[in-house]
Design a protein that fits this description.
Layout: H1 17-84, H2 87-90, H3 94-155, H4 158-181
Helix pairs in contact: 1-3, 1-4, 3-4
């Protein structure tokens, strides 16, 4: 195949300085965007794990509260039986009442601890979500910068490159805020 069908610029492969700058700029932003995307994904995975932990703790707490309720119901039934039983047999039920009271205290403490652990895991998930939102916005600004830079290369309009630089600066700023304020 000959070169007669190819449109090769006279200056070689380099293109204009603007095109070269845009190419390097785009490559650097793409690489940086990959890092930001990884950080965002990693952070979201951590937030989801914490949210999952919160749900599991809440389910365990619910089970403990259900057990507490059934024990409480048993204790009330024993109290009722104590009231209805003849006085000579009512004293025999005191041991059962003491046993249920001790179980209720233990179950209540366990359920409250699980509720607290669920609340803490939920709070940790929310804390991880704020930097993730900043990373997502940073990624949007970086993608906008890459798009505008591509248009700059096609149109050769220099002021568009300034807009791309500003968008990239916004993305880097949001990334820095996520890293410094959130992790």
């Amino acid at each position: 195949m000959g070169e007669e069908g190819l449109d090769v610029p006279e200056g070689g492969h380099g293109g204009s300085r603007l095109e070269q700058g845009v190419a390097v700029f785009t490559a650097v932003l793409a690489a940086f965007g990959a890092v930001v995307g990884f950080q965002g994904s990693h952070l979201m995975n951590e937030a989801l794990l914490k949210k999952n932990e919160a749900v599991l703790r809440k389910a365990a707490a619910t089970n403990e509260w259900n057990h507490y309720q059934s024990t409480s119901t048993k204790a009330h039934l024993v109290e009722l039986a104590q009231e209805l039983a003849p006085p000579d047999k009512a004293g025999q039920l005191d041991e059962k009442l003491k046993k249920y009271a001790a179980q209720k205290d233990e179950l209540q403490a366990k359920a409250r601890a699980l509720d607290d652990a669920s609340t803490e895991a939920d709070r940790a998930a929310e804390d991880l979500n704020a930097p993730h939102a900043r990373l997502a916005l940073a990624m949007i600004f970086l993608q906008i910068a890459i798009s505008i830079a591509s248009i700059t290369a096609l149109t050769q309009v220099r002021w568009l490159f300034v807009v791309a630089l500003l968008s990239a600066a916004g993305g880097v700023g949001l990334w820095a805020a996520a890293v410094l304020l959130g992790f």
